[in-house]
Design brief:
The chain contains 14 helices and 36 strands. The protein is globular, with a radius of gyration of 28 Å. It is 19% helix and 26% strand. A hairpin with a 5-residue loop joins strand 26 and strand 27. By secondary structure, the chain is of the alpha+beta class. The termini are far apart. The strands form ten sheets. The chain has a seven-stranded parallel β-sheet with strand order 9-12-8-13-14-15-16, with helices on both faces.
Length: 732
């Protein structure tokens, strides 16, 4: 039985990957519980036996029958607990894929520790534990493999499939650097906080140096001019290791890193690494988000990065396949928005078919383990950008996981927009067009890891992929409401071959500005990204009241106002809001209770006239002193009435307003009057909770349902002893 059958049955048994659809309501979760799946016959596959024959030790997949959940009620309870373990950002990203509401699924449930311990007790060495696949990867000999297969909860034992990394084509050519020094434009110290995060964003570069051509070909400079730079987006880089001291990378924000080869938190070269281990990863990272003034700039230079070292350059071994899946699960749990993977898998050293090797027939979108990992990542709301590989020009020359459905597989073009012979072609084994898109992968500038000030020219889909990943981060930044499908479609439908896609260049070379502003999903209407100011992050506050300040945001619709919703809570109880306020200003005096020696977190959300939210780039924290213990009276509810949209209106218009406050109920009324002051329609007259944003639609009819005439009308909001009135125009 092939791996696809085993894994797909496991997935189906636990309510996992399937066609994209909205998650079921919470009260239906228990109905998704199923009993343990049947064991394969034989459990220990022939291919796995071949790997461990003659006393050899091999890397194997061990798939389990279930997740040791006895009944439906326990399943529902464990789902809730699993969902709570994800970061708030990961839950919010997943909610974009399910109509705005996060619902955990069986892939969030951990693999039972008793199962893992039992496998380990056989003498096998545990490599990685995959909650997505309900499996562990191990290193084992024949005796251990047979003992594992005898465990009653083991469904199948299969070999880790062989793999080979996508490298560069030809030699990397060093080029002289420009005049850049790697410093921040217009600033002095780098301002890197503990953990490698920047205290503020990097300024828009005035010169792109040698990288201008590769960026201009996909319209990145124009996107930067519009204010998009990847801020507030998390991009996960999967590669061979990373030089964090290079001039192109030293200033980039890093949220976390992990070495999946040696199992530690250092992704730079270490003692056991080959000297060139970090070359490929450093180069691709710089292409996606580098910031080396007058030399090398990446599309997403203000993104925050996760660095995953998944490749061991000392050999091409099957182990790296499970590293990719483990890295994807890690990135998912932290909240990654985009994965950039210049890696692909099909064969391993020594080259040539061997028992268990993948073939072209396996490139069907659901067979190889890395492809399944890419599918799971996409289903969980991550835009996966993966190199289509460098094995062209023959049809069907792509490698996994580029065959995965609903990801962005990336081919290469040169600076004249011509596909080079090395760029792998589609179709997939089941006939789908690949790649999806292309970007410059010939004579592309990247960072040379061996010299902290050097850049070079390299070729390969390894280079075009991080360009597309960086562009995807810009699209996600502009459209925080979009799911994976919308980001992917926007980049594809605005590419230059969208009307005639083929298996050489897919839908063509991307145009990030067109994807942001002119796709079928419409222009961005969210306010621009902005930062918090005071109190500074991780500062101490010893006096009250506390004034919170932030930078001003800007609505993309000229002339429209932006309001801000401020929330503060104790970090030990993030679900308990201690203070909440809505204001048109860029500051607020915090009222409420501050306890001594506590840590508080606050964030601000900018809202446009229709209530579309843009969160501050990151929340800030402050601690109180030992003597801070002040109770302040709550502020009165704030009432803000906004201009209706559209105005003038032809048939109907939306009237937004905010009732700020602590959540208490107040009486609110919203009425329409004509130019002579006569009541036309009462749209609202009821008790409503504060700390909420409202949008009420007027359909241009009076109290009796009759259509009113063209003219000037007024709408008046009364709430919390406040009255506000605005004018609108109705044109029939």
């Amino acid at each position: 039985m092939r791996l696809r059958t085993i894994v797909l049955l496991t997935i189906l048994a636990h309510g996992g990957v399937g066609p994209a659809r909205a998650a079921r309501p919470a009260d239906e979760r228990a109905s998704r519980f199923t009993p343990p799946a049947r064991r394969m016959a034989p459990v220990l596959s022939r291919a796995a036996l071949d790997r461990v024959a003659g006393g050899a030790r091999a890397t194997l997949w061990v798939f389990f029958t279930d997740k040791a959940i006895p009944d439906a009620s326990r399943f529902d309870r464990d789902l809730r607990a699993a969902g709570a373990r994800l970061t708030a950002r990961a839950r919010a990203r997943r909610a974009r894929e399910t109509d705005g509401r996060f619902v955990a699924d069986a892939t969030d449930l951990p693999v039972p520790s008793v199962y893992v311990d039992a496998v380990s007790a056989t003498g096998a060495s545990i490599r990685h534990v995959s909650r997505w696949l309900d499996a562990v990867s191990v290193t084992a000999g024949e005796a251990e493999a047979r003992r594992i297969a005898a465990l009653p909860f083991v469904r199948a034992v299969l070999p880790l499939r062989p793999s080979r990394r996508v490298g560069t084509v030809g030699e990397v050519v060093p080029v002289p650097p420009g005049t850049g020094d790697g410093g921040r434009e217009g600033s002095g110290a780098l301002g890197i906080e503990p953990g490698g995060r920047l205290a503020s964003e990097l300024a828009k570069p005035s010169s792109y140096g040698s990288s201008l051509t590769q960026l201009a070909s996909i319209n990145v400079p124009a996107a930067h001019d519009s204010g998009w730079s990847g801020a507030n987006e998390i991009v996960a880089m999967f590669d061979t290791g990373f030089n964090k001291s290079h001039s192109a990378t030293i200033q980039l924000k890093r949220l976390a890193e992990w070495d999946f080869v040696f199992g530690d938190g250092e992704t730079a070269n270490q003692v056991n690494d080959a000297t060139a281990a970090w070359d490929h990863g450093t180069g691709t990272w710089a292409v996606a988000g580098g910031y080396y003034l007058n030399n090398l700039i990446g599309p997403a230079y203000n993104a925050t990065f996760l660095l995953a070292k998944t490749e061991d350059v000392r050999s091409e071994t099957p182990v790296e396949e499970d590293n990719w899946v483990a890295a994807a699960e890690w990135a998912d749990s932290i909240g990654a928005d985009v994965i950039s993977s210049s890696l692909a898998y099909l064969d391993f050293d020594p080259q040539g078919p061997s028992p268990g090797d993948y073939t072209y027939a396996d490139l069907d979108g659901y067979t190889t383990v890395v492809t399944l990992g890419a599918v799971f990542a996409q289903r969980h709301g991550i835009v996966v950008c993966n190199a289509n590989s460098n094995n062209g020009p023959a049809p069907g020359s792509l490698w996994a996981p580029a065959d995965a459905d609903s990801i962005l597989s990336v081919g290469a073009v040169d600076n004249s927009n011509v596909v080079p012979t090395f760029s792998s072609r589609g179709p997939t084994a089941d006939g789908r067009i690949k790649p999806e898109v292309v970007a410059q992968g010939v004579s592309t500038y990247w960072a040379v890891a061996s010299n902290n000030t050097a850049i070079g020219l390299a070729n390969g889909t390894s280079l075009s992929t991080p360009l597309v990943a960086g562009a995807a981060a810009l699209v996600r930044e502009a459209h925080p409401e979009w799911g994976v499908g919308q980001v992917r479609s926007a980049l594809m439908e605005t590419a230059d071959s969208a009307s005639t896609p083929d298996n050489d260049r897919g839908w063509g070379r991307i145009n990030v500005v067109q994807a942001i502003y002119n796709s079928s999903y419409g222009p961005p209407i969210y306010p621009k990204p902005f930062d918090l100011l005071v109190p500074p992050n991780q500062s101490s506050v010893s006096t009250t009241p506390v004034t919170l300040k932030w930078h001003r945001s800007k609505d993309l619709t000229p002339g429209d106002a932006v309001t801000y919703q401020v929330v503060l809570y104790n970090v030990t109880a993030p679900d308990q809001i201690l203070f909440q306020s809505t204001t048109p200003d860029t500051f607020v005096v915090m009222t409420g209770y501050l306890g001594p020696s506590k840590t508080y977190e606050w964030k601000v959300t900018a809202l446009d006239l229709l209530g579309h939210p843009r969160d501050s780039r990151e929340p800030f924290r402050f601690t109180t002193g030992a003597t801070t213990d002040v109770a302040l009276p709550p502020s009165a509810p704030q009432v803000v009435l906004f201009q209706s949209r559209p105005n003038p209106a032809h048939r109907a218009t939306d009237i937004p307003f905010t009732l700020g406050g602590s959540g208490a109920t107040v009486h609110a009324s919203l009425r329409i009057f004509d130019a002579r002051g006569r009541l036309v329609r009462t749209l609202l007259d009821s008790d409503e909770p504060t700390a909420r944003r409202y949008v009420i639609r007027w359909d241009g009819r009076d109290q009796n349902g009759a259509t009113v005439a063209s003219g000037i009308y007024y709408y008046r909001l009364n709430a919390a002893e406040r009255e506000e009135t605005r004018r609108l125009v109705l044109l029939r």
